[in-house]
TrEMBL record:
It comes from Salinispora tropica (strain ATCC BAA-916 / DSM 44818 / JCM 13857 / NBRC 105044 / CNB-440). InterPro entries: CTDL_fold (IPR016187), Sulfatase_Mod_Factor_Kinase (IPR051043), SUMF_dom (IPR005532), SUMF_sf (IPR042095). Residues 15-306 form the Sulfatase-modifying factor enzyme-like domain. GO terms for molecular function: formylglycine-generating oxidase activity. This is Sulfatase-modifying factor enzyme-like domain-containing protein. SUPFAM superfamilies: C-type lectin-like.
Length: 308
């Protein structure tokens, strides 16, 4: 079923389960949370179609079966590309979240992130894990090039950051969340996020320790699901932030605009994930953003597509 956010153009709908987002001007960004989100500015966006749901494991499996695509997590990194890496780590793998057994320093992401050989979209927790029963969960462990390859196969593209944020706002100008200004209206949790003290105490008030099936939480005003929480989403845009400032990142190491760790291009990811918690990463908001290295894949990063 295709929903229409407000009004649609006189053109043929490009695919099922896409929503038309009318173009226009909107206020993008925020100055109330993290420095990389500002300043608030007016942005003009043309109308576009966007996937109602995140790309699922089932859809990605079809793509792989039809194309033979091999994801970046399934290919051994080369010593030429990573000259400072431990040779024993130059094997196929991806980043997997490991819940801490108790309170740990939030200054060191290694307290919860683990480079895991054998972790892929088929084996999201590493060897021995499976996506059986999670076919309708968002696909994860996809690097930027994997998302682009899927979008190209589907006859679509990845959204720009401004397109994504306009769609995520659901017609609510300046609201904190995709559904309004209150995190849990009338006590109802509206997204798959972390409840408790990250990264060791997950109260599971939303019912999910990891990803959730797409559409498990209420849609926003444009009938789009999971525009907050569940998994982060790739966009086309290269990540930038105020020169010389330190951008705190909850999924990667912090980087500076002139720092050595900025050598690998980073693209904007949006929406937050099931690992976002108020005590560490309150990024399940439309204005929230951070940069992810394009060669990186994780257990909480996926994507959706657009058609223009």
């Amino acid at each position: 079923m295709v929903h229409e956010a407000l009004s649609s153009p006189a053109t043929t709908r490009p695919a099922p389960e896409m929503v038309w987002i009318p173009g226009g001007r909107f206020r993008m960004g925020s100055t109330d949370f993290y420095p990389e989100e500002g300043p608030v500015r007016w942005v003009e966006v043309d109308g576009f179609w966007i996937d109602q749901y995140l790309v699922t494991v089932r859809e990605f499996d079809r793509f792989v079966r039809e194309t033979g695509h091999v994801t970046m997590a399934e290919v051994s990194p080369t010593a030429a590309d990573y000259p400072d890496a431990d040779p024993e780590l130059l094997v196929p793998g991806s980043l997997v979240f490991r819940k801490a057994s108790g309170p740990v320093s939030l200054a060191d992401y290694r307290n919860w992130w683990s480079w895991t050989p054998g972790a892929t979209w088929r084996h999201p927790e590493g060897p021995g894990s499976t996506v059986d029963g999670r076919e309708l969960h968002p696909v994860t462990h996809v690097a930027y090039s994997d998302a682009v390859a899927f979008a190209t196969w589907a006859g679509k593209e990845l959204p720009t950051e401004s397109e994504w944020e306009l769609a995520a706002r659901g017609g609510l100008d300046g609201a904190v969340f995709t559904w309004g200004n209150e995190f849990a209206p009338e006590g109802k949790l509206m997204a798959n996020t972390w409840q408790g003290a990250f990264p060791w105490q997950n109260l599971l008030l939303d019912g999910y320790a990891g990803t959730s099936p797409v559409g498990a939480f209420p849609p926003n005003g444009h009938h789009l699901y999971d525009m907050a929480g569940n998994v982060w989403e790739w966009t086309q845009d290269v990540f930038t932030y105020p020169a010389g400032s330190l951008a705190k990142a909850c999924c990667t190491t912090p980087v500076t605009a002139d720092g050595p760790s900025s050598a690998i291009p980073r693209h904007v990811i949006k929406g937050g994930s099931h690992l976002c918690a108020p005590n560490y990463c309150m990024r399940y908001r439309p204005a929230a953003r951070q940069g992810e290295a394009i060669d990186t894949s994780t257990c909480h990063l996926g994507f959706r597509c657009v058609s223009r």
